[in-house]
């Protein structure tokens, strides 16, 4: 994940910015840069690779300005080289950016028609060039930024520095986090509180749609997604330090990690997709064209990510998939083909059963790929190919952002496999990659359901049992929803394929059992709604999760949660969020220990 730092200081800020960026290294990055105001003019120093290379450049070419911005970048649009490193700048404005600008192509075409010359391959430079045009048209920095924000689509955080404005910095967020730090005659921006810990413990967290105009005297926050009116964001004391991840203004880590999903899924997709060419990247050392089967193994939530992936690989790559819970894999003694590929999925990379399965597959002569959130973990080190999930540290025991990052990684891999096996055409790949690029924005929209879900959770909190139903890729999402509710609220919940309802579970239905139906409006919708109606006929309380068209067709329910319409391929990533929010708010209402539920550990390192 990218890191952002901005400082309006009382001494040269470049060394402070580099120090702050070091505290964000846990996010991962492949280039870094700093821009400062030198006697009113914008100056930049950028370098690919680790921060030590930027430090070496700053030693040779120091910056002395008292106002500056800095960034660590994961490459999204364009290779990880100096020309694509942030900050991006014109003569009049410099900007650092986390996230993805979805409509950057059409905006870039517009700028090209005006004769703008681009110096990089990034979506971020489009933002800088657009603001520059607004400034050239005579707008103030505040109005120029507001005009550009109104035209951007995607999930992002942005911080701007302007030529000749030594006491001004503007930040904005939509989907990606951004915090403001308060000092004594100094002010700061940071993508999280850890970056700002050496400078201040007084932090305010911007909400989605906020635009913050910062001077050394303080900050004015406006709603840039709506009326532009002034809003107030509380200042709170942060306890962040180098060894601690801060909850920010969230009550629990789980809530923070749910909210981080647009950003971290965006970064994960950026790693596994070539967005400039609309291609999915094939990991080095894996030749899908020579494979005839695929084995997937995992535990818990990661296993459900694998179940979704089975649908994707079999549909888009026409590749048969064997999938097992890792604790059963070895004991089933499945026939394994030497030279075949096994994929291990683990958030921690230390899951004992998954590691044992990996070693069993290795003994059978198989190639190993791991989908893992910790690149230095044992599973990652023992793999032939590592497919990183860039979720960042996940503190809550119940997995949220790690799960959706696993889905994002596996989705990209399935597309890459389909193209390599000539099942998908270039046009098919373009369409599927484009659907994935839209996911962070759709996630941001889905998070707006939280107030409705919080009210619904009060009903769930009075239930002893709950059922979750889904078909196709929605079936594993139903399983995951039931698991989340069990894990943190301790309510008994079960997930079923909707078609199995009549084969036993329907006996449990009565007016006290809520039934969550996961049903995007796709080719399976009609059959799923038929199962839903069987529940309603027996007095069951149906909570339907669908899109706008599905809600119209389905008719009346106990509660309908309407998520943004999405391409069916990516619906599991979108529909996972209501599952998480429902479990979270039910647990909060019941007063359980959300982040550390009883009897559970974050990483299961014993069999």
From TrEMBL:
It is found in: Cytoplasm. The active site is at 2 (nucleophile), 602 (for fru-6p isomerization activity). The keyword Repeat applies. Keywords: Aminotransferase, Cytoplasm, Glutamine amidotransferase, Repeat, Transferase. Residues 282-423, 456-597 form the SIS domain. Its EC number is 2.6.1.16. InterPro entries: GATase_2_dom, GFAT, GFAT_N, GlmS/AgaS_SIS, GlmS/FrlB_SIS, Ntn_hydrolases_N, SIS_dom, SIS_dom_sf. It catalyses: D-fructose 6-phosphate + L-glutamine = D-glucosamine 6-phosphate + L-glutamate. It is an enzyme of class 2 (transferase). The keyword Cytoplasm applies. CDD domains: GFAT (cd00714), SIS_GlmS_GlmD_1 (cd05008), SIS_GlmS_GlmD_2 (cd05009). Catalyzes the first step in hexosamine metabolism, converting fructose-6P into glucosamine-6P using glutamine as a nitrogen source. Homodimer. This is Glutamine--fructose-6-phosphate aminotransferase [isomerizing]. The gene is glmS.
